[in-house]
């Protein structure tokens, strides 16, 4: 099944549940009308939270740049000895 | 003798390392050196798909062929810049390995991770092993805060919309079973990095077993290329396309 169909079915199910809640009036109707807004706002907040956490925990590797420079020097040296002209950066 | 090896459960696989190049005269030599350094006991070939680089990349590759052997380094050039997807397809036609590794030519992908890709695949029998920069043990160097923010935001959006099953969608350091790459690539039509996203999302949808290994990514290009508004628009368009068609 295509992904978009999965997502739409999920939305349809949630909407059906919401409409059911409206009709059954277990929860006061004024609250129920606001539920979609709460849902979207929570989703937005969750997204922002995930971005923030991800940003704080963003893995960096400054030592890799140094190691790479070492590797480049090693490679250039090797090629110089083998007579391969690799030129300069 | 061959039977003895097979009953022991040992099978020697061959790996084709596919590297599309454009103006990577120095970098391709360094990559080749590093691949040979880190894959000592592995049967592999390097396939360089060069799109008519004016800086002499092909001449360097020919010298490397003299040094390492024409059976280890294959030069399969094209006349001009024709795009990444077609470069992979072109290289794939000449690949004789059981597995194909794709990687960038600008040294942002370090060959030292090749053994970990191979090991992961052998351990899990995965169809695809993809390198991820965003987990512990991985990482990125050379990005400022704004760049990290865009990357993180883009990733969260893609995860929410697409449920891709991998943590790094735009990464292009991957190992594929050859038949799997052939299957996935035939159904992808995007360009650029959206192409990389499309490949991994389609592979997930088709139910292929995908594993991840941490990799580090040293961005030496970012200072020169900017992530502007048009890139962001292209990315969003790509997301919507993938949302609707996969």
From TrEMBL, chain A:
Keyword match Transmembrane: yes
Question: Keywords in UniProt for this one?
Answer: Endoplasmic reticulum, Membrane, Transmembrane, Transmembrane helix
To which pathway does this protein belong? Protein modification; protein glycosylation
Q: InterPro entries this protein is in? A: DPM3
The cellular location(s) given in this protein's UniProt record come to: Endoplasmic reticulum membrane
Membrane topology reported for the UniProt record: Multi-pass membrane protein
> Coiled-coil segments, which residues?
none
One of the Pfam families matching this protein, by short name: DPM3
GO CC annotations? dolichol-phosphate-mannose synthase complex; endoplasmic reticulum membrane
The answer to whether keyword Nucleus applies is no
Transmembrane annotation, as ranges? 34-56
- Per the UniProt entry, what are the Gene Ontology biological process annotations, in alphabetical order? GPI anchor biosynthetic process
| Protein family membership | Belongs to the DPM3 family.
* Chain's role: Stabilizer subunit of the dolichol-phosphate mannose (DPM) synthase complex; tethers catalytic subunit to the ER.
- Complex and partners: Component of the dolichol-phosphate mannose (DPM) synthase complex.
Protein name per Swiss-Prot or TrEMBL: Dolichol-phosphate mannosyltransferase subunit 3
From TrEMBL, chain B:
| Residue ranges constituting the Glycosyltransferase 2-like domain according to the UniProt record | 16-184
Where would you find the membrane-spanning parts of this chain?
none
Name the enzyme's class: transferase
List, in alphabetical order, the GO biological process terms annotated in this UniProt record: dolichol-linked oligosaccharide biosynthetic process; GPI anchor biosynthetic process; protein O-linked glycosylation via mannose
Question: Where does this protein have coiled-coil stretches?
Answer: none
User: Where does the record say this protein resides?
Assistant: Endoplasmic reticulum
One molecular function GO term is: dolichyl-phosphate beta-D-mannosyltransferase activity
Query: What pathway is this protein said to act in by its record?
Result: Protein modification; protein glycosylation
The entry's keywords: Endoplasmic reticulum, Glycosyltransferase, Transferase
- Superkingdom in the source lineage: Eukaryota
Q: List the Pfam families hit by this protein, alphabetically.
A: Glycos_transf_2
> Would you indicate the residue range of the signal peptide?
none
Q: Where would you say this protein principally sits, based on its record?
A: endoplasmic reticulum
InterPro entries per record: DPM1-like, Glyco_trans_2-like, Nucleotide-diphossugar_trans
> According to the UniProt entry, what is the EC number of this protein?
2.4.1.83
The Gene Ontology CC terms held by the record are:
endoplasmic reticulum membrane
Q: Which reaction does it catalyse?
A: a di-trans,poly-cis-dolichyl phosphate + GDP-alpha-D-mannose = a di-trans,poly-cis-dolichyl beta-D-mannosyl phosphate + GDP
Family, per the entry? Belongs to the glycosyltransferase 2 family.
Instruction: Name the job this protein performs.
Output: Transfers mannose from GDP-mannose to dolichol monophosphate to form dolichol phosphate mannose (Dol-P-Man) which is the mannosyl donor in pathways leading to N-glycosylation, glycosyl phosphatidylinositol membrane anchoring, and O-mannosylation of proteins.
**What does the record note on quaternary structure?**
Component of the dolichol-phosphate mannose (DPM) synthase complex.
Q: Which PANTHER family match?
A: DOLICHOL-PHOSPHATE MANNOSYLTRANSFERASE SUBUNIT 1
Query: What name does this protein carry?
Result: Dolichol-phosphate mannosyltransferase subunit 1
């Amino acid at each position: 099944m295509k992904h978009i169909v999965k997502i739409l079915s999920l939305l349809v199910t949630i909407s059906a549940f919401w409409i059911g809640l409206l009709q059954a009036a277990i929860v006061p109707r004024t609250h129920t009308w606001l539920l979609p807004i709460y849902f979207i706002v929570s989703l937005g907040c969750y997204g922002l939270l995930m971005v923030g956490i991800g940003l704080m925990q963003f893995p960096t590797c400054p030592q890799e740049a140094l190691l790479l420079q070492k590797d480049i020097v090693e490679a250039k040296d090797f090629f110089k000895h083998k007579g391969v002209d690799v030129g300069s950066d | 003798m061959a039977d003895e090896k097979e009953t022991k459960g040992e099978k020697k696989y061959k790996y084709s390392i596919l590297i599309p190049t454009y103006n990577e005269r120095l970098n391709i030599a360094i990559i080749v050196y590093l691949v040979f350094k880190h894959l000592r006991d592995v049967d592999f070939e390097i396939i360089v798909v060069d799109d008519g680089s004016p800086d002499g990349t092909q001449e360097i590759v020919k010298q490397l062929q003299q040094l390492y052997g024409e059976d280890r380094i294959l030069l399969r050039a094209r006349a001009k810049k024709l795009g990444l997807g077609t470069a992979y397809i072109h290289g794939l036609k000449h690949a004789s390995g059981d597995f194909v590794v794709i990687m960038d030519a600008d040294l942002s992908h370090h060959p030292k991770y090749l053994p970990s890709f191979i090991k992961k695949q052998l351990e899990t029998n995965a169809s695809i092993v993809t390198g991820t920069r965003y987990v512990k043990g991985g990482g990125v160097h050379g990005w400022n805060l704004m760049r990290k923010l865009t990357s993180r935001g883009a990733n969260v959006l893609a995860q929410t919309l697409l449920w891709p099953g991998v943590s790094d969608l735009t990464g292009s350091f991957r190992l594929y079973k050859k038949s799997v790459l052939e299957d996935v690539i035939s159904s992808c039509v995007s360009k650029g990095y959206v192409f990389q996203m499309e490949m991994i999302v389609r592979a997930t949808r088709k139910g292929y077993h995908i594993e991840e290994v941490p990799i580090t990514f040293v961005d030496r290009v970012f200072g020169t290329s900017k992530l502007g508004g048009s890139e962001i628009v292209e990315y969003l368009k790509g997301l919507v396309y993938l949302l609707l068609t996969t």
